[in-house]
Specification:
The chain contains twelve helices and eight strands. By secondary structure, it is of the alpha/beta class. The chain folds into two domains: about 30 residues, no CATH class; about 280 residues, Alpha-Beta Barrel (TIM Barrel), CATH 3.20.20.140. It has an eight-stranded parallel β-sheet with strand order 1-2-3-4-5-6-7-8. β5, α8 and β6 form a beta-alpha-beta unit. The longest helix is centred in the last third of the chain and has 16 residues. It is globular and about 50 Å long.
Length: about 350
């Protein structure tokens, strides 16, 4: 990582009363909330957003996702649009996570990222067990922005089924040997069980479980109990991280914006994985289907405000260094002190 200027002296923390007054004042005027949250973020903890998506439906070849009928999402999602939304709120860098099953889109994302240093890493889409996996991994890994792959309940794939194939496991060992990460998509009890079995077999592989707050508790009591036991087991494995992302939910046609609605679930996840293994991810622009970026960030910012500054710093950026080993590309991006 390149040298960066010394970090400025941290400002004194603002009081909760000041924050509440800021939000109350902002909501009295239409359109003011984003500006108030941006002001609150000024000089605060830097943020690395570990989960955004990049795509452009205007490309001649089109895109696999989102579908044209989705009026919220079906428009270009590129760094030039993301930066003005996120940077005023304290976001200093982001990791682009695949949202396309097209092999060529691995390179497309890397090419897009090359033109804006707010992108500090990319998680691509390769299929372990396929004959060309190693060659493709080697080629993509030559780009330092390539940080790993995502595999899970997406594009008709299943992590548990893959573990039954020796070539699949062998390719994931190669991923671990390269120092790269495996993100998992769309958690459910079967996937959580598969992550336990995967990390039994490849304990050196860093795994990131995406969007854990979105996993609904199973209706079956035995399945629910088994899933909780598996999560507790993963909570003891230092190479497994979770994204506290996709926190918001739609209930009876509306999206609650009060932290108290989400607190119990967040406390449960935090209690299992602790302050060293949780990551911030916005899921932008997919998150726009629930709320705009400032509101998505506000819920988790308030939750971690209550955990104290050291835990918040770990969640918002320090743990992302351990999980992804991302590339610092501009001076405003944080880095761990060299020992």
């Amino acid at each position: 990582m390149p040298e960066s200027p010394p970090a400025p002296h941290a400002p004194a923390p603002r009081s909760r009363r000041h924050f509440v007054q800021t939000i109350v004042a902002a909501t009295a005027f239409p359109g003011a909330l984003q500006h108030a949250l941006a002001a609150e973020a000024s000089g605060d903890i830097p943020i690395i957003d570990t989960h955004i998506h990049l795509f452009d439906p205007t490309r001649p070849q089109g895109i696999p996702w989102p579908p044209p009928g989705n009026s919220v999402l079906y428009k270009p999602a590129l760094p030039a649009r993301y930066r003005p939304i996120a940077a005023p709120l304290g976001v200093r860098g982001a990791i682009a996570v695949e949202c396309s099953a097209l092999l060529e889109d691995n390179q497309w994302v890397l090419n897009v990222a090359a033109h804006d240093p707010i992108i500090v890493g990319a998680v691509g889409n390769l299929v372990p067990g396929e004959p060309d996996f190693r060659a493709l991994l080697d080629r993509l890994h030559r780009n330092p922005l390539f940080r790993g792959i995502r595999y899970g309940n997406l594009w008709g794939r299943n992590l548990g089924a893959g573990l039954a194939k020796p070539e699949f496991v062998s390719d994931l060992k190669a991923l671990a040997e390269a120092g790269l990460v495996l993100d998992t998509a769309n958690p459910n009890p079967d996937l959580i069980n598969a992550v336990v079995r995967l990390t039994d077999r490849i304990p050196t592989l860093r795994v990131v479980i995406d969007h854990l707050p979105q996993m609904n508790p199973p209706d079956d009591a035995a399945v629910n109990r088994s899933c909780r036991e598996n999560l507790r087991e993963l909570g003891q494995r230092p190479q497994v991280y979770v994204k506290i992302s996709e926190v918001l939910r739609r209930v009876n046609g509306r999206v609650p914006e009060d932290l108290e609605f989400y607190r119990a679930r967040l406390e449960e996840i935090f209690g299992v994985f602790g302050e060293d293994r949780v990551l911030y991810g916005s899921d932008w622009p997919n998150s726009d289907q629930w709320a705009d970026y400032p509101k998505v960030l506000h819920i988790v910012r308030e939750f971690f405000r209550g955990k104290g500054r050291p835990a918040a710093e770990k969640y918002f950026w320090k743990n992302s260094v351990a999980a992804y080993r991302w590339v610092k590309r501009e001076p405003g991006q944080p880095e761990l002190a060299k020992s």
